[in-house]
Amino acid sequence: MPVKVSIKEPLGTYFITFTCANWLPLIQLTNAYDAVYKWFYTLVKNGHHILGYVVMPNHVHALISFKNIGQSINTLVGNGKRFMAYELIKRFEAQGETKVLTHLQLAVTAKDRLRNKKHEVWKYSFDWKDCQTNEFMLQKLNYMHLNPCKGKWNLSKTPEDYEHSSAKFYICGMRGVYPITNYLELADIDFTGDTI
Q1: Each residue of 168-196: pLDDT tens digit?
Q2: Helix (H, G, I), strand (E, B), or coil: what is residue 159?
Q3: Per-domain boundaries in the chain
Q4: What would the DSSP string read from start to end of 114-142?
Q5: pTM of the entire structure?
Q6: Per-residue pLDDT tens over the stretch 85-114
Q7: Per CATH, is 12-188 categorized as 3.40.50.300?
Q8: Rounded CA gap, 89 and 20, in Å?
């Protein structure tokens, strides 16, 4: 369910979830997993830390520690979603996927059309949970890492076998597709950018 309440704090660790419009597997259809990793790279380049993630065919879970860089966390996530949306649309156009593009155009609300929005790639807003303890962070990491193995997905037999996840790092000590910061290292990080 989308959260319409903004994150008030300028920094902190949050479990973030955003989902493709109408739960369509848009990430999988465009093989746009790398677009999510590019957003992670942009965040890390600006001093934030990716602590865990799973990129599913139609949604993304990420545990992110945000540094105060003078932009709200909602803006940072919104900008990332916008960047990824442009990339997905570009790939659908290159694939000649007019049916999907038409579906995404029809999903745009009248209000958003007035703002010149052409496609609805993501569900409005995003879900978030404030993670202030190691126990809660571990709970969210376990939840996201099990996601590919549960329910209708059945994308892998074990969490560490799913390619687009940080599970391999936490379970096997091996780097996955995207390098992360271990959540246990947060105590050693000063979010002004200095190492303690």
Answers
A1: 999 999 999 999 999 999 876 655 444 43
A2: helix
A3: 12-188
A4: HTT-----B-SSBEEEE--SHHHHHHHHH
A5: 0.91
A6: 999 999 999 999 999 999 999 999 899 889
A7: no
A8: 12
